[in-house]
């Protein structure tokens, strides 16, 4: 049975704003996306503490803070022109290339 992947318009490196939860209204850069689980990791947001034992790889054990994942549906991309979280639409350029664009101002988000 094939695994189902969630369709998303968010890519690694995008600036996103969190819509719900304890990190609401904060923005950050996307570090990683997992489409099979429908989650993403945002830089310096949703920090969780992990307890690690000393090992050969990390001789110093202790409590490590790292970014936790959150659902893709809880974030929106921040438009650079509007400077607000916006929805995304797909546009076609004259040469036939498919690009992401802001719904409000029409600014193309793909570099």
CATH level-1 class of the largest domain: Mainly Beta
H/I helix tally: 0
Helix coverage percent: under 10%
Could you tell me the mean pLDDT? 92
Q: SSE order, as H and E?
A: EEEEEEEEEE
What fraction of residues sit in β-strands? 35-45%
Q: Uncertain runs with pLDDT below 50, 5 residues or more? A: none
What does the largest sheet look like? Answer: 6 strands, antiparallel
CATH architecture of the largest domain: Roll
Tell me the overall shape. Answer: elongated
Number of domains: 2
Radius of gyration: 17 Å
From the helix content, strand content and strand pairing, which structural class follows?
mainly beta
**Order of strands in the sheet with the most strands?**
6-3-2-1-7-8
> Would you tell me which CATH topology of the largest domain applies?
SH3 type barrels
* Count of individual beta strands: 10
- Gap between N and C termini: 36 Å
Q: Which SSEs are present, and which pair or pack?
A:
Blueprint: E1 15-18, E2 27-34, E3 39-42, E4 47-52, E5 62-67, E6 69-71, E7 75-78, E8 85-86, E9 88-92, E10 98-102
Q: How would you characterize this protein structure?
A:
This protein is mostly beta strands and 111 residues long. The protein folds into two domains: 1-78, Roll (SH3 type barrels); 79-111. It has no helices and ten strands. The protein has a six-stranded antiparallel sheet with strand order 6-3-2-1-7-8, with no helix packed on it. A hairpin with a 4-residue loop joins strand 2 (27-34) and strand 3. The chain is elongated. The model has no long low-confidence stretch (mean pLDDT 92).
